[in-house]
Amino acid sequence: MSEFLPKDVREGLEIARKQTMRKKSRLKVRVGDHDFTILRYWHDGFALDVDDAPHLRGLVDVYDGARHVSQCLIVASEEDAGEMVYEFKRATSAQDRVPLDYEVDANAPVALIQKL
């Protein structure tokens, strides 16, 4: 059906679609001091608007609003329908605490109570 529409109308619809996706998405990728809105996200990659995104490569951080979701090693894959698609080489989920290098006993006391 879209091939029957005039070129200006098709371009306007595409711009409106991208703006809607950009407003709905809370996910952002941060490279240094620059943030880019993620239009689509899946288990092994994500897509950015081709007009906004440079050919990113290397280590980036993914945020959901202000919450750090993961740190990823990415490579630019392809350009598809106005989107730049990136694939993960490695995606490590962000932790809110430091990893322990010892085993925590399930029955260990939480605190010590001293006699007065």
Indicate how many domains the architecture comprises. Answer: 1
Amount of helix: 10-25%
N→C terminal distance:
83 Å
Please give the largest β-sheet. Answer: 6 strands, antiparallel, barrel
Q: Give the mean pLDDT.
A: 83
How many whole angstroms does the radius of gyration measure? 22 Å
CATH architecture: Beta Barrel
Oligomer: single chain
Number of strands: 6
Put simply, the count of helices is 1
Strand content: 35-45%
User: What top-tier CATH class fits best?
Assistant: Mainly Beta
**Helical/strand content category:** alpha+beta
CATH topology: Thrombin, subunit H
Order of helices and strands: HEEEEEE
User: What ranges have pLDDT less than 50 throughout 5 or more consecutive residues?
Assistant: none
Side-by-side strand order of the widest sheet: 1-2-3-6-5-4
Shape descriptor: elongated
